[in-house]
Amino acid sequence: MDQTLLVISNLPDAQSAETLARALVEQGLAACVNILPAVRSVYRWQGAIEDATEVTLFIKTAAHRYPELETAVRRLHPYEVPELIALPITAGLPAYLQWVIGETRKDVDV
């Protein structure tokens, strides 16, 4: 079975998060995207400490689709440098993990 990934990204608001999530699922690049409620992020950007409210996405995908997913996020994300972190899923309900792989096959009708 192909490796499954949990990909995390933050967006500035609910509308941009929903737009990106829907596009990834519609294009077959993600099987499922969870849109979490607002989180507070504190980070350094261009030499200044920033404090922002963001919306987090948990994106479930197959490792072989990650390059295309990254391309889509870079194209659709409103940030100059979007957060995009991919974590391997090392264990999980086999039926769920197989579903993720099945939904992100390139030959699935989207």
UniProtKB/TrEMBL annotation:
Gene label: cutA
Pfam families named in the record: CutA1
Top-level taxon of the source organism: Bacteria
Family: Belongs to the CutA family.
Protein name, per record: Divalent cation tolerance protein
